[in-house]
Amino acid sequence: MTVVRPFRAIRYDTDRVDLSNVIVPPYDVIAADERVSFFDRDPHNAIRFELTRDVADEASADYTWIRECLDLWRASGVLVQDDAPAFYVMGQRYTAPSGEVLERVGFFAELGLEEYSARVVRPHERTLAGPKADRLKLLRAAEANLSSVFLLYEDREDELSELLSKVLETGEIGSARDGNGVQYRLARTSEASQIECLQRFLADRPSVIADGHHRYETALDYRREQIAARGDDAEAPWQSTIAYFANAYSPGNLLLPIHRVVCDVPAPPERIWREKLPSWNIHALDSVPLDRVEALLTDELAPLAGQAAFVAETVAGTTLLIHRSEPLKDELMVRILEEEVLGAVFELDPDSIRGGAVRFPKSARRAGQEIREGEGTVALYLNPMTPDDVFRATAEGEVMPQKSTFFYPKIPTGMVIRDHRSR
Length: 423
What we know:
Radius of gyration: 22 Å
Shape: globular
Helix content: 25-40%
Largest sheet: 9 strands, mixed
């Protein structure tokens, strides 16, 4: 069902640049105050393919400089293109919050685009119009896939592990380490038997988007534009994009929660929580300093995995553990939170949430910091979902509330690029 093909990647020449200095996280996890540090880290840093230096310039950006930058770096030899099509295996070794050292091994491929209605590539989250419009401007200007969609496949028996590990150990072409301590190894395979094995495995199953819903939907929009303008050429470069594939059930694929921060609605007193959530158990906890927030969640919230549960921390320092005793079963906590908490307690509808009434910090520490700095009124901390939750929901055609999952590590921009003009 999922069609993947090898491609001739454009990559950094590791004799000219240090990969550690030029790869960047996906655009949507780079905080506004982090942009400048990436721009200043190296004159060839890949953030130049993703974002403006100043957030204020984003709305008016036409991204014309991206194609110029891509062409200049190719002409100067900073970027080079491989001679033969290949799959690109990437390993990411990192230390989990538990202290355990893990490694996720997956691969980059050219992915044939399919509309969601075909149920081949399956979304699990809603998207926002603003980011899609911005990414479409970028794709039009660049005529290149500069960053990758991240897709998950179901391989409970880990059938592909041996093949991918073999490629990684024998065909390495680059390595890097990012600011979070994640170590990367990149390898390439053009061996026909290995390519056929990966293609055959994925052809039998659908894929679920872990990260990059906006990028995938942008690629679909761009394809529709090109078909309308040029006709439906099945071999055209805009009929596909690039994607990184990983096993959702691999121990190295970590699924973390995305927390919520309510921006402007006043924090309700404990009395209102009890009034609005009469069927929930509510326990007051001692306030903790910022550096103890994650430990608090480990001690108090993690034991309630499998139940509807969250911790609310207000700008005034009130901290409440709120949960229901019965198991979640097939319910999704993110949906319960949107309907019963953000909806009933804060009176926020989905349009208001999507419109910016709620922010979605990627870590408990970041959420706690925002509350302590007065950038929000209430932080809502969650337990992570499971791969089973994601596959069950997508198999049933469900779309979860936005920012329901945080798969870690992220897939960096700068490892491989696909230029539509030179395939």
